[in-house]
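User: Last request for today: this protein with flavin-adenine dinucleotide, please.
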Amino acid sequence: MHKVVILGARFGGSATAYWLHNLFRRRHLDITVVDQWTMMTYRPALVTAAAAHPRLADNWHIAMQRRCEQAGQRFVRDSIFRIDPQKQQVHLASHPPLPYDTLFVATGSDPGWQTIPGLGADSGGVCEDYLARQTGDHVQRPFRSIAFAIGPLAQAPQDRPRVSGSLDLPAFEVSFLLDAWLRKQGRRSGVTMTVVTPAPVPGEAFGPKSSAFLLRELSRRHIDLITNARYARVESGAIHFADRKPLYAEKMMWVPPYHGSKLLRVSGLDDGYGWFPADQYGVHREWPNIYGVGDVSSTALPKLGHIAMMQARTAVHHFYALQRHGTPTPFRPYVLHVVWLGRGKGMLTMSNWLYGGGRELMHVGVSSALAKAAFDYGYKVFSGWMPVMP
Amino acid sequence: MGTTVGIMGAGMVAALAVSVLIIMWGARFLAHRAEHLLGSSARTSLMELFYTLQAWSGREIVLTLRRAESGKPAEHPMGSPVASPPLLDQVAFDPATFLPSHSPHTRDIRLGTEIGPRSPRPLRLSLPVLIAPMGYGIGLSADTKVALAQVSSVAGSAASSGEGPYLPEERAYAQRWILQWSKGPWNHSRAVIQLADMVEIHLGQGAEAEIAVHKNRRLPRRLNRMAGQQSIVIHSGIPRSFTRLLPYLRRVNPQIPIGVKIPASQHVEADLAVLAALSVDFITLDGSEAGSAGSPAVISDHFGIPTAVAVKRARDWMNRHQVRHISLIASGGAKGAADIAKLLALGADAVDVGSALLFALSHGQLAKFVPSFPQGPSALVFADSKAHPHPQLDIGQAVLHASRWFEATAQELRVILQALGLDTARDLSRSALIARTSQAASLLELPTAEHPPATGRLTQQVASLAQEYQRLLPSLELQFSLLQSRHHA
Ligand SMILES: Cc1cc2nc3c(=O)[nH]c(=O)nc-3n(C[C@H](O)[C@H](O)[C@H](O)COP(=O)(O)OP(=O)(O)OC[C@H]3O[C@@H](n4cnc5c(N)ncnc54)[C@H](O)[C@@H]3O)c2cc1C
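Assistant: Here's the final one, the structure of the complex with flavin-adenine dinucleotide:
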């Protein structure tokens, strides 16, 4: 039987497992999924936890091991240590090496806390359950100022399109949600809020309409914005920049810098900058039996779950086409996202502007928020394997 | 109608009068019996309890009964009393007034420290507190380990594997992860060593000395599977390959600090001489107060020297032999910021905290035990087999409480430093301490209130000169070595 190994079991890995299950018969493939967590943390929901609802951080765990095992796939809970592409083996911390014929890598980007001096997970964050819970707990207590800072994305210089920030949307979402919550508590006037982004505009991957709306919304809600940020160092209560005065903030919430994957670096599989060098089907540029899916891939821009799911679809269909001598379809990216605005509203953007397509559809209202809530709950209820997949 | 009310009223008054009489008679009867009891022979009455409790501690009685029940060495968790009051409580701080004059009472007080300064990637901590090694499965449950790993990251501290097997979630959550290289059957693969941010070779600990530990009861099933056997043995003594182990670990992961944990013994100086010759990056001294999930009471309650004494003697030895590159970690008995600061002042670079964190983790969840579960509250955090049902730890709540404990501890450390007129935790020194008892004075060589330290201006100046010199020395050495290398070039 053809041995397929999937590394990572969040948006990218889970969707890969879904498509393999969907396209192939069970007896054709021997599928193993590896992740250090048996439960997937559904990260889009963490922004609500960080906005003063810490207990929500523990409501968004999805039993991925059970999901895969129900479909007859094997799940290994371990740390992935190294990939040996020559021997076609994955080395794990506490299991024997795992052989593969085809490998799907969906291990995301490591947080680059150490890339800015003084920055660490203890500076405040939102990207994992424990960080969002901690931020949510801190902002419930009295404070006078908060910075929502977005780390840079360390892309390879030749990569196109260019994106400056690791992921800007969670920072804007938490700022809007917290603004709404503080207003409800009657505490907003005593708090200064600032979003700091390395990008020239908010919502850099969306397009001009969405960016203009976000700018208006920030100013309407008296949330300050610092763009083109170049970080020098961070200390408790202050962010220092290379080219401007420091920002003093009692509390901070960081989306950390994204600087690729240590796993790819130690395995010699990265593009020199920690990213998976993928072609338009997600295939590794040197190793045709290795696919890269989601945040880990140099072509996943912006680093969104929706993009990871679409890449999983493209990669598995390519693999399927190879097996069946069919013609695969390349990855045609577009951004589909809803930014929570608070008070039951959202901003929906569907756009291919970043890739030079020039189309951008934007809608603000309750229906956008409802669409996001429906997707989130659907994802949770179906453990990521939804009846209709992007 | 009126007559009925009248009769009821009279009845109630009579009943009240009878009850008062009964109570009075009862009280007198009891007083009489008590008097009789006090005067009767202790050999034939309940009064023997009085004498038993005078001679025996509650701890010894419970341990004796346990031995009678099981026929095995009695064990208990949660540390051992070494001195009464505990040695660290016999020490106070000396508040800054006009002295030390050079330091204003500062607002920006830094707590950060690093372990293994000589290694290419020292372990950097936001405060000089480490989460004590407590192994998954043989000590703590997986949920507790996961909670502690999360806490370590939000607090800027580090989590440690302890002697238990590898737990992927712990590594994933902990920004800084210490591998404890145990003499057990796991965690020896190159991959695990390379995933670590620091390795601590576990030669022994305060509660167990260096005896072998056999575990076969109440283990999670996953543990037996990982060990490939039903009973788990952590071997005794110093492994024969110990001297080769250190260079091997360094070869596999050359970036990180590598050190050793030993129980604090009366010959601590000799132990330090051996370890310093091996060029370890840090030494953890586990004092006799140190707890565990359950160790033979004959060891944990009757072996070793107190943590504070071990740290003081170790730092003295290191100063005498000019060993500046080895970090010293104090472990055992630290309950909070005051204890931590005192251990730092006695010479530690960082302090392990275990039991206090387990209390903090369980806060707000103990009511779950009432009324349906007969176990002690530690069942919430300790590992157990699925066969023994007990309440589940709410990880989210546990992490919030334990990280608040860290926040409070950091603030308390800053308050202590402020009151001492110091800018950083590294400035803490023995001159900040006063002994409250003669025991502490003699064990820790500290001045007591009745014997003021030399107060003459000259001695004061000499003391501060010596302190300045100590601070200056590393940079002078660095300059000297730079000059030398340039000279050679
Ligand atoms: C706060 C926040 C909000 C977001 N909101 C949205 C949103 O609203 N919409 C949207 O589309 N996207 C959103 N995103 C982005 C989205 O979450 C990511 O794009 C998505 O998680 C990427 O999925 P992935 O599978 O590529 O990688 P990841 O989510 O990073 O998953 C990688 C998996 O691999 C495992 N792994 C990695 N290395 C190892 C190893 N060495 N050993 C074992 N296991 C390993 C990890 O445990 C993890 O489970 C948000 C992200 C954040 C942080």
